[in-house]
């Protein structure tokens, strides 16, 4: 009986190995296909990250340029305001002198 049990175990092990091989053969194309898809997605993700980084750099550069322009215009506005105040003071002084004449 021990011999027939041993034979049955060997037969079942062989059957299991054959079944595993069949399943592996059936699943292998799907596994390879999914691995290729994962590789494509990873490559696409890398490209998108590079584009995002480039866009962020371009955006930061544009912000820096606009900030510089804004600062320049602010200085110009301040200068014009000073000139207007000087002009107003000169006008008031001239009007005062006219009234004293």
Alpha-carbon Rg, integer: 42 Å
Low-pLDDT stretches are none
Kindly, what is the distance between the CA atoms of the first and last residues, rounded to a whole number of angstroms?
141 Å
- Kindly state the percentage of residues in helix: over 70%
Strand percentage lies at under 5%
Mean pLDDT: 95
Question: How many DSSP H or I helices?
Answer: 1
Number of strands: 0
User: What is the N-to-C order of secondary-structure elements (H for helix, E for strand)?
Assistant: H
Q: Which of globular, elongated, flat, extended, rod-shaped describes the shape? A: rod-shaped
Structural class: mainly alpha
Q: Major β-sheet, in short?
A: none
């Amino acid at each position: 009986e021990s011999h027939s049990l041993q034979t049955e175990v060997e037969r079942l092990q062989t059957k299991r190995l054959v079944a595993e091989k069949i399943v592996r053969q059936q699943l292998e194309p799907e596994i390879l296909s999914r691995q290729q898809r994962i590789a494509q997605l990873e490559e696409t993700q890398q490209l998108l990250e590079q584009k995002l980084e480039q866009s962020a750099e371009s955006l930061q550069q544009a912000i820096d340029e606009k900030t510089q322009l804004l600062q320049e215009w602010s200085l110009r506005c301040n200068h014009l305001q000073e000139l207007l105040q000087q002009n107003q003071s000169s006008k008031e002084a001239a009007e005062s002198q006219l009234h004293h004449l």
